[in-house]
Amino acid sequence: MKLLAISGSLRAGSSTSALVRAAARLAPPGVIVDVYDGIGLLPHFSPDLDTEPLPPTVATLRAALGASQGLVIATPEYAHGMPGSLKNALDWLVSATEPVDMPVLLISASPGGAVHAHAQLSEVLLTMNMRLVDGGAHVFSRAKLGPDGEVNDDALLAAVRRGLAQLCVDSHPLDSHP
């Protein structure tokens, strides 16, 4: 099984990106998590550009999503919302077929708890006809990173593990029924 993971932060050394790396490390056996790091390279969304041939960075994003059975998104909160670059990436997927009915694990984290970004992003993902696996909104900051820059908060790591396990079940809904 293959999952695509996206960090909503563009900042180098981002704690949100550390959360995405933790998801890749914590993936259950047999699950590969590819980290997509190109949201900062996507052009500003315009319906005029959403035609064939697509801008190469958009085509790459859609192909990566198309090759995946699920999506993991970790987002910080900026001004009570999701970062504009993450919303831009999602706007490029609105008219695409790849995300339709795809399960997505959403984990939001910021020093303030990220509840506003989490609610906003949940609404967008549901509107895009994606199946939401809610990994929760968490109080999280660089203070919960170890000296290596990786997540070392046991409660947050447990939430990521639980979310990944549920995402794997939701990615194979027919397999979960006898």
Structural features, described:
It is a single chain. The chain has helices at 15-26, 56-66, 84-91, 115-127, 154-171; strands spanning 2-7, 32-36, 70-75, 103-110, 131-139. With 178 residues, it is an alpha/beta fold. It has one domain (2-171): Flavodoxin domain (Rossmann fold, 3-Layer(aba) Sandwich). Strands 2-1-3-4-5 form a five-stranded parallel β-sheet, with helices on both faces. It is globular, with a radius of gyration of 15 Å.
What's the layout of helices and strands?
Layout: E1 2-7, H1 15-26, E2 32-36, H2 56-66, E3 70-75, H3 84-91, E4 103-110, H4 115-127, E5 131-139, H5 154-171
Parallel strand pairs: 1-2, 1-3, 3-4, 4-5
Helix pairs in contact: 1-5
What's this model, at a glance?
With 178 residues, the chain is α/β, with parallel strands linked by helices. It has helices spanning 15-26, 56-66, 84-91, 115-127, 154-171, and strands spanning 2-7, 32-36, 70-75, 103-110, 131-139. The longest helix is centred in the C-terminal third of the chain and has 18 residues, at 154-171.
